[in-house]
Description:
globular; DNA repair; 758 residues; MMS19_C; nucleus; MMS19 nucleotide excision repair protein; MMS19; Leucine-rich Repeat Variant
Amino acid sequence: MLISEQIFQPTDSVTEQAAxxxxxxxxxxxxxxxxxxxxxxxxxxxLAKDACEECIQILREPEKSQAKPAIKIMCAFMATTxxxxxxxxxxxxxxxxxxxxxxxxxxxxxPTLGLLADVVAAARDSMPTDPEILPAEEDIPLxxxxxxxxxxxxVGLTPGSSVQPALDGLKALVTTRGLLTDEELGFxxxxxxxxxxxxxxxxEDISDSALDLLTTISASAxxxxxxxxxxxxxxxxxxxxxxxxxxxxxxxxxxxLASLTRLCKQPDLFETLVVRLLTKLDLICVPPPTTADAxxxxxxxxxxxxxxxLRTIVDVLSAKVExxxxxxxxxxxxxxxxxxxxxxxxxxxxxGTYLVATDPRLVSVASQIITLVVQTLSAQRQETFVKALFxxxxxxxxxxxxxxxxxxxxxxxFGPFASNAPTVQKNxxxxxxxAITALHKEVALPDPGEGPLLNQLLLWSVVDADNIxxxxxxxxxIASILNKRTEGLSTFLEERLDLFWKDEVVTSERxxxxxxxxxxxxxxxxxxxxxxxxxxxxxxxxxxxxLFGDDKVGWDAARAVGGAVATDKILTKKNHAxxxxxxxxxxxxxxxxxxxxxxxxxxxxQRQNAYLVALTSLIKSVPKxxxxxxxxxxxxxxLRGLDLPDFEIRASVIDTxxxxxxxxxxxxxxxxxxxxxHASSLVSTMLRNSMxxxxxxxxxxxxxxxxxSVLPSAVRYDVLHPQKATVIRELWKVLDDPKKAVRKExxxxxxxxxxxxx
Length: 758
């Protein structure tokens, strides 16, 4: 009696689970001795039978609160002995099916299906879990009831309150190994398609569950999804972008692309996705001449639509790479050449006018696709590909690299490295760098070779690059080559970099913005060496410290000290970069004491502030565990950092303090926490930074309010009590902030302080 009370009237979930487990052990103990293979469910007597009958009585009213505990008991019985499991299933399944079909129980269909879904899941989980062995029909507990259960669950897909439990039940049914035939899986897919066509895609929860079920089915039976679901989705994608004011149409294609992203990871489905989306991309980016030449045509909707399509391919590819899908490599032939063709063709045909595929945003997202595919290739296959890449970019021979429906004009030259190349061609260096950064270190680079190529890229980034996309592409390519191929590059590292430093960074003859761009490139080269543990990286860092007194670029150099070890998406294991274990920690241990000492002792305000900037940049770039032991020393410096005029620096400092406060929630930390020692000054500083009249940056205001919100859980009441009234009063003013995100954080912070008591 006591056990059943803890199930039907549990004091907490832990006790409830313990009671259910105890019940299972009891049933196993009672019935294990009498278990035999030919024992039928009718032979069950005693406690199991009595309990089942009592639960069935309760389940006559599925909408009542006692129904859930009753179904939990019956589900627990299914994980006891085979005969008890069969008996339980023979009692509860027909009962719930009859209940659902009873016209008098129409209002209770949703809770009935919810209970049935729990039963199906429990029956599935009671089966052996060996994925290598397909169970025989007699070993599948649900097999005798399959038709009836499948019938009521698919009927439950009729729009209404029963849809969600029906989907839950079908998910459990299709994941029961060996239960449904291929034809029955096709029937389920058909019913889900009907559900989505009935407008349920607008219900986010239902749509997510339906897509999840389709994705599950596609893993074992992709043909049904490919032949019925995908055509429906693709038919809802327009061939032309909806106009700017057609918000509902734009929302529709966003939803469709989101559905395709969820569904198309399976190899066969992804192949269909690529073919269909590339066709759409051609229609959007290379419209008929009459459309393309229309005067005053608004191209932004087309660029947005094309971007969404490319983003869909990126998202699915990323998931496939994470899952280790072997089919990704074949898209070096089926996808990558089509992308190069589209963008090179558009750049050559633009004649200085805007074409959709010359949009830098599209080039940027397409570069991610190229990296994802190239990084999965073997070194041998990469070597073949990189020859075609160099032939196109360095020798104007694009036929090996690009492949598509439109004919590349022979009377126009593709030379993005040329000084007189148009911007739309130079932007395509992003697609070049996307491939370079993903190469194995063993892949030999064709002519001009590594050293001359680095010189060419470095010079191009300074002289010819005219926007951030181009400069970043050059820097990424330089960093990747340098990281993987330092052997044989001593001349570049010792002589060329020295000239670059003198001519582009240190010199006051160059404009400050050009010097900042050169520091950014220098940072990438420094990172390339530090990541691989090359001691020459430390020499490049030392030069950055020399600039701290420069009133034009000192802070940029200071940021670079931390940025040199910040996590990035270029120098990664997936891109086959050479990465030494704990390189960031070793670097931090080397430069942090130097920064702290100089920040304390420097008498030059410019240099002192630069060291504070370097400090905030560094601690933002490395794991908290690296500097946590230094927090007592760092805290006064961080508080000074909150007075610097740079909003991004302030936000970084507050984020650091927030992480420290969040780790101070234990009672021991409250007693000894560094946050408590500076509580008074922290409160006043954060209040100042949360007020729009004092702080125009929304990011800083939100960060300050989050810190104030967590402070009561990190510091003892007796320490914070003197500030409580002031905080509550001042936060009241923030509730009028024009930004909703700020107001939301202010409400939470004020509530936490209002409830704060000793």
